Amino acid sequence: MTMLLILLLALTAATSSAFSAGKGFGRPPSSSSSAFAPFDRFRASCPADIASIQRYDPSLLRGDGGANDVWVAVYRSSNNLPSVCVRTSTTAPGGDSETLVSSSSSTEMAITTSVVSNESKSNGNEGAKPVAVARLGKDAASGCHIIDSMRCTLKKENTDPDCDGGSEHAEAIGVCIDELVHSYLQRYLEDEDDGMAFDGGIHFRGTLVSGKLLDSRGFREVSELSADMHSHESDLEGALSKYAERSTSREVAKNPGARDRALKIVSGLGRIDREEDARRAKRIRSGGEGKEEDGEEGEFDPWASVKRYL
User: Fold this and answer.
1) What tens digit of pLDDT does each residue of 159-209 get?
2) Exposed e or buried b for every residue in 120-134, given b needs 16+ CB within 10 A?
3) In which element (H, E) is residue 151 found?
4) How far, in Å, CA of 110 to CA of 100, rounded?
5) Is residue 105 predicted with pLDDT exceeding 60?
6) What predicted TM-score, i.e. pTM, was given to this entire model?
7) Least buried of 121, 167, 263, 266, by fewest C-beta within 10 Å?
């Protein structure tokens, strides 16, 4: 009996020691755990300075843009460095020990500070090059606004489950979409422009990557081909539902900026008069701003966009 009591006491002491050392039901949260250290990988500037778009790609400003176009520029935040750039003690071929190389175990290694650019030294964007840009402009033919000229330098193939959207590329594109949607809502609510409607008022030419991001934000796929060749358009009820889900999602909560943008958009959508917005949307669809609701639509020429090159 005494021997059994001694064994039980020894087992209890060993179990307590294992838990205190973090070997019980799991390791205690460390400072390097992303689950316990929420941060924003990207910061956005909207409306962006034209100089920042010029630094990204000057050719984007050589199109048929309007004076009221809104640009957004997305930058890496100060506390976010590329996860594939690490500092190792091994000398890379043709370099020294400070050379940045790609590693699959980057989370276990210290990220070098040599990649910190001028943009991380201050909160401004002076001299910094964006990683993603996009534009919100009005299409004169349809009377709707369209998000286009979306570009991103990050590789979509580099996935990361901790990113909003599954990769840094998707997260940066998502920031562009959210910022431009919020900008559209601000103009819609402040100016009370009768030629603007949210339901169907924003068009987007989606891709395999951006299409999923649009679906997760309540944009609906179009069922008919239109002159601007868009694949998705804004949906008032769908956007309100999806952005409300994003504002309370635990996954989105890892990025405080994404949650704040979702809350701002939900707040703006909640202020929209449903009946008035439906009236505006019907008016725009029936012939565009300034035209009577006669139900007639112009004939669509699918080759119109390429005829100027022939």
Assistant:
1) 998 899 899 999 999 999 999 999 999 999 987 667 799 999 999 988 888
2) beeeebeebbbbbbb
3) strand 145-152
4) 12
5) no
6) 0.69
7) 121
Burial pattern 81-118, b for ≥16 Cβ within 10 A else e, equals bbbbebbeeeeeeeeeeeebeebeeeeeeebeeeeeee
43: β partners: 75
* Cis bond before residue 256 (omega within 30° of 0): no
Query: Which structure tokens are listed for 131?
Result: 């990683």
Contacts of 309 (CB under 8 A, 6+ apart): none
CA–CA dist 203, 149 (Å, integer) = 13
Tokens of 94: 């043709």
Taking the C-alpha atoms of residue 221 and residue 40, their distance in angstroms, rounded to an integer, is 30
SS3 content of the chain, % helix, strand, coil (to 5): 40, 15, 50
DSSP-derived 3-state class of residue 261: helix
Whole-number Å distance between alpha carbons of 101 and 165: 25
Q: What distance in Å separates the CA atoms of residue 165 and residue 136, rounded to the nearest whole number?
A: 22
Q: Tell the residue number behind the tokens 């539902």, with chain if given.
A: 241
Task: Tally the C-alpha atoms within 13 A of residue 35's C-alpha that lie toward its C-beta.
Answer: 5
Place of tokens 């949906």: 235
DSSP 75-129: EE-TT---TT-EE-SSPPTTS-TT-EE--TTGGGSPPPGGG--GGGSSSS-TTPP
Interstrand relation of 42-45 and 232-233 (parallel, antiparallel or unpaired) = unpaired
Please name every residue paired with 202 in a beta bridge, in sequence order, or none if there are none: 145
Rg (CA), the chain: 25
The whole-angstrom separation of Cα 302 and Cα 280 is 27
Quick one: pLDDT band at residue 309, thresholds 50, 70, 90? Answer: low
Categorize the per-residue pLDDT at 276 as very low, low, confident or very high, splitting at 50, 70 and 90: very high
